[in-house]
Amino acid sequence: MNDATHFWHAYRTGRTRPRGRAPEPTRPGTPPPRTTWHMARRSLLRALFASATVAFTAAALSRIPAARAYGEPAGAATPQPDDGFTFDEMYAGHRIQGWPIEADGASVTAFVDGRQLDLMRRADGSYLSSVDHYESYATAREAARAAAAELGAARLAFVPVHGHEEGAARGVHA
Amino acid sequence: MVYTRKNQRNLSSAERRAFVSAVLELKRTGVYDQFVRTHIAFYVSDGDAGLRVAHMAPSFLPWHRQFLLVFEQALQRVNPRVTLPYWDWTQDNSPASSLWAEDFMGGNGRRGDFQVMTGPFAYARGQWEISVNVTEGRFLARDVGRPSRPIRLPTPADVDRALADPVYDVAPWDSTSRTGFRNKIEGWTTASGEARFRNHNQVHRWVSGTMLGAAAVNDPLFWLHHAYVDSLWSRWQDAHPGSKRYLPEVPPPEGDPQHGRVASLRELMPPFDVTPASVLDHSGIYRYA
Predict the structure, then answer these.
(1) Looking at the predicted structure, is the pLDDT value of residue A31 above 60?
(2) Tens-digit pLDDT profile for residues B222-238
(3) Do residue A45 and residue A88 come from a single domain?
(4) Considering chain B, what is the average pLDDT of its residues?
(5) Measured between alpha carbons, how far is B264 from B275 in angstroms, rounded to an integer?
(6) Using the beta-carbon criterion (under 8 Å), do A153 and B111 form an inter-chain contact?
């Protein structure tokens, strides 16, 4: 886990820390400690609540890919096998998206938080991004994930650094 | 007059100050950012079409030699006594090195956003606002050694393995060339895990932050790193007097996948009007001490 991912985990852990006061210590004259049943019931209730939260969160997250801006391709109704360049997910606190800009996937484009991520192709078919120029990754998705993790709290520039070459439509060729 | 490029650890405090001042002056006048842009524009990958001269190509070494020389000349227009120092990362590989001093490169980035907070290139000093960047960040960032997923610097043995190769470069003249001094130093592999980082690439990754991205030149450490890489090329030439000093000697023929995509010995390396052949020997301009 790199620092950016660690940062993100810590952030999420911080948010899910139990709220409310710590239990009072037991003193003479106070009610006896809770029974096993009480504890079990509380655990059960907590588990139910937690799973409900998870289910709710999952439902909410699963809606994210549906929330596309106008002009972006609609996701396939049924899950597609991972081709490595068609993706839309949250990773390390960033939304990463990618899709082919030629029907056969010979040319692809990728975005982080809606901003274009420059991708380049190595002769062995792997990908490198403008964020991480000295290592390459097997797929565009992996390169985008690595870029997202590397970005941490930072945001891609509005204009991609390589954008002057072929404009915003610049993709990489297979 | 042949001048000397010194190991940064041997600079006097006056020499350190002179170097830093000249760099800041180039930044102030906007000249520095042109070097950042040039390096971005000529970073062409070998899976993409077209001529590539700066990376993943035989001319990785001569292109950067010329890039450094032009930068050094710009520094010398500010102060004629300044030369590029080099950083021997096989020796000065700890945060205690004078490299990171307050009066030189400044230290590591802080936790969280990796912003460099010390030294002349800290954003808060007001003299180093990054204007050409991959991110929206306007500050220099470093994550030295990547403690969350540690990576080490190349060792003398790593460098020696590259220096031992008697052949300058081999077909297909790109990031997949399995042998040859050039790619062993540039550092592209198809390995996985720690082994996939080598020498030049590995150092960019070790410093991380700004140095990892397309706008790596924004970290002045870039020049010290590449000056050392340049010195290794000289060492390789000295170690192999019988080897061809540059390959390929002639352009790959029509039909070769690399035809028109690499600079052979006597072809120009844009944007410079020099060929690899014309920069093979730097002994009339500078030497390494």
Answers:
(1) no
(2) 999 999 999 999 999 99
(3) no
(4) 96
(5) 8
(6) no
Would you state the pLDDT for residue B130? 97
* CB within 8 Å: A173 and B47: yes
Question: Which residues between 251 and 270 in chain B have a beta carbon less than 8 angstroms from any beta carbon of chain A?
Answer: none
The nearest alpha carbon in chain A to B50 belongs to: A173
Q: Are B186 and B231 in contact (CB under 8 A)?
A: no
Nearest CB to B176; choose among A124, A128, A150:
A124
The token pair at A50 is 């937690």
Instruction: Give B-chain residues touching A150 at CB under 8 angstroms.
Output: 212
How many angstroms separate the first and last alpha carbons of chain B?
15
Cβ–Cβ gap A133/B43 under 8 Å: yes
Higher pLDDT, B275 or A4: B275
DSSP 8-state code for residue B75: H
Report the distance separating Cα B188 and Cα B202, nearest Å. 9
CB contact under 8 A, B134 and A120: no
Report if residue A93 sits inside a domain. Answer: yes
**Are A100 and A152 contained in the same domain?**
yes
Over residues B139-156, mean pLDDT: 94
Is residue A12 in a domain? no
Q: A-contacting residues of B 140-159, CB under 8 Å?
A: 141, 143, 146-149
Burial degree of B121 (CB within 10 A; 0-12, 13-18, 19+): buried
Its domain, for residue A137, covers 82-158
CATH 1.10.1280.10 fits B3-288, yes or no: yes
Q: Which among A5, A135, A164 has CB closest to B196?
A: A135
Residue B32 has pLDDT above 60, yes or no: yes
Chain A contact present for B214, CB below 8 A: yes
Tell whether the model's pLDDT for residue A45 goes beyond 50. Answer: no
pLDDT at A2 over 90: no
Cα A5 to Cα A91: distance, rounded to the nearest angstrom = 9
ipTM confidence: 0.93
Q: How many other C-beta atoms can be found within 10 angstroms of the C-beta atom of residue A103? A: 7
Please tell me the total count of domains within chain A.
Answer: 2
Please check whether residue A41 lies inside any domain of the structure: yes
In a domain, residue A101? The reply is: yes
How far apart CA B119 and CA B106 sit, in angstroms, is 4
Do A86 and A152 fall into the same domain? yes
User: Same structural domain for residues A150 and A90?
Assistant: yes
Is B47 close to A172, i.e. CB distance below 8 A?
yes
State whether residue B22 sits within 8 Å of chain A by CB. Answer: no
- 8 Å CB contact of B47 and A131: no
Mean pLDDT throughout B210-229? 98
